[in-house]
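Batch job 17 of 40 flagged for manual review because the log was empty.
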Amino acid sequence: MKPIKIGLLGIGTVGGGVFEVLTRNQEEIRRRAGRGIEIAMVADLNVERAQQIVAGRAQVVSDARAVIANPDIDIVIELIGGYGIAKQLALETIAAGKHLVTANKALLAVHGTEIFAAAHAKGVTVAFEAAVAGGVPIIKALREGLTANRIQWIAGIINGTTNFILSEMRDKGLDFDAALKDAQRLGYAEADPTFDIEGIDAAHKATIMSAIAFGIPVQFDKAHVEGITRLTAQDIKYAEQLGYRIKLLGITKRVAQGIELRVHPALVPARRLIANVEGAMNAVVVHGDAVGTTLYYGKGAGSEPTASAVIADLVDITRLHTADPAHRVPSLAFHPDALSDVRILPMRDVVTSYYLRLRVADETGVLARVAMLMADAGISIDAVLQREADEIGGEGSTQTDLIILTHDTREGTLDDALVKVQALPSVLAPIVRLRKEELA
């Protein structure tokens, strides 16, 4: 059987990895797919660089649309990124009746509903394993391996840049700015790291996982997103003393009132495996009713780890290339007519537990006044840690830190109570509030 022909849009870091791994492992891949998989055409604005990479083994053009228009191309890989031209090219690929493989989580999180609907109408596949957690096969696990389960919740470290920064802050006692500079110097963070450090990248990925886990449309605009820019080394140290580590988590959870979809820093018990994921690694915990808790761990970025996921999609499509579209695995695991528009909860309705740090006057009765306001709001305190004043401001200091861990409470209830606590004359600085996730 003749090889299936691939068109590659963008041959940067990931595209180069795809070309290299596909070439290096072509015989193994052919044995798995049942036929050869060959990149026949590459589009990149930097034609000279692209020609150096392919070394005469594929045709190189500067116009992506020439690849889409080529009748010999069966599958198009989109590795351009972003929301703009990538969306147009994705829809044009589908309209041309070609299957689409993409690593573009931003595109799918924002425009996925439109793209998946177009693919379903045309009878082609959109595959995107590389869009979440790089080389970790979490999409396939959610879409196929766990298909018997009613998924209850997912919690993931799905941005390697922020996990590296938090690891540096914990291990070296660095503040955020210093850890970010380290990450940039070592190549873990971009010159403009906004998407990573503000939680946007993780929210794109959490949105996609939520849709697959719960059979809902992709709804990035309803996700709650917080980054790590306001975290301090002090809170990381206090969390450690209390038996927790702070991680930026993407969380989606099924509750009675709807679906939670949120990204934010959270305290995780140090005994949990995911709390011990360090550096730029990714990990995702999934809890299903039948299987219980499963953990997926590995490299979330990089040339060849991401290429591994892209090529896995190529193999899947090749195996089912001639199959009736109705017999293929749906893009979002559930058949399009079976998706449900379940409510995404606003953060005020989310119930979890909290870490609070209050800089207070070192005087009698402060804790009692704070505890009374919390009790009046119906918020139960789990633990209290009070630092010695001289630890905070040196000998003779009149200020101290009061650390409070709460039991589960509704976020809106806590927000309202903290307004009253903040107004106490003995509370001397803005209260630090972090969520706590037991992941039990």
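Reviewer: the log was empty due to a logging misconfiguration, but the result itself is present. The chain has three domains: 4-135+303-338, 138-299, 350-436. Unflagging and moving on to job 18.
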